[in-house]
Amino acid sequence: MKTNASFPDPERICRVLTGWYDRHRRDLPWRDTRDPYAIWISEIMLQQTRVETVVPYFLRFLAKFPNCETLAQAPLGEVLKVWENLGYYTRVRNLHKAAGEIVERFGGQIPNRWEEILRLPGIGRYTAGAILSIAFGQGVIAVDGNVRRVISRLFAMEESVDDAATQKRIEEWVATLIPKRDPGRFNQALMELGAVCCTPKTPACPTCPLQEECRARKLGLTHRLPLRGKKKAIPHREVVAAVIRDENGRLLIVQRPVRGLLGSLWKFPGGILDPEELPAEGLARIVRTEMGIEIGVGSFLAAVKHAYTHFRITLTAFSCTLQKGVPAGAPWRWAEPGELEELPFSKADRLIARLVSPTTSH
Length: 362
What we know:
Oligomer: single chain
Low-confidence stretches: 1-5
Radius of gyration: 24 Å
Structural class: alpha+beta
Number of strands: 7
Distance between the termini: 54 Å
Mean pLDDT: 92
CATH class of the largest domain: Mainly Alpha
Shape: elongated
Helix content: 40-55%
CATH topology of the largest domain: Endonuclease III, domain 1
Strand order of the largest sheet: 4-1-6-5
Largest sheet: 4 strands, mixed
């Protein structure tokens, strides 16, 4: 590694960092507990999601599902509804599945052994480390993107933090720093430093408790590090949806497959257009394949834009009529406009639902 520095004093770093954390840490609801279930829920919600967004979801989720038993027993649709608009729905499906396994295999108690907790759906090395160190006081590391950024600057690492070898070295360094006493507090302090001080674009170096140890600051590299691999261009997809009403004004909706993006959520019939495909022709083709019915594509109703992790979409909805056939295939139903609020939809589909159904509450 191109650090050109001896390893800083682990005891000093731990003492200074945890002291700073005790004085400046944010007041967050999951920091007032050692309950492994609450810590697990918070860590899953915080993946790729801002803290201020997570807080109300965390409180509502625990009020509705206070333990593994209540989560495991709840229908997936009910759990998805509580999670709605938090995004990355694979997380909540894995939570639900893992809760079932915890109840069945461990009597509802989250396991405290590395090998066992790592086998649960949706739990990787970081999440396992966070739960075991914070909830169970075990001396294991919890390295997320914030921690990688802090370490890369602390040692002026001039290798990409996206490389597996670099990530392994970072984990080795963190393992050397972590104390035997209250390792969860240290892990949280390191993550907190990256979240509120050693931030990606404008780090607050003058207020950093580790500024004297930081080689990136001494070498004037703070704003250049960490180095990342080249970002791929984010593709854009045109998505179309059919808003079909029956003679009673009910709307035709369909449930997405369990697996895949937005699995098990409800939506309007439709999907992704082929390149250069005309919206009306493509929508008729997609609905025919999806539900076995022929539709007439009418006027434009609304369009919304939405960004996912690896692509962006423009979802365009059209007023359509059912011309031939009976819906079949994936689970479907005719829903009263007022029912739409009670079912889990993606953010884009929810926006369409509210635009085409003014009676739907917000």
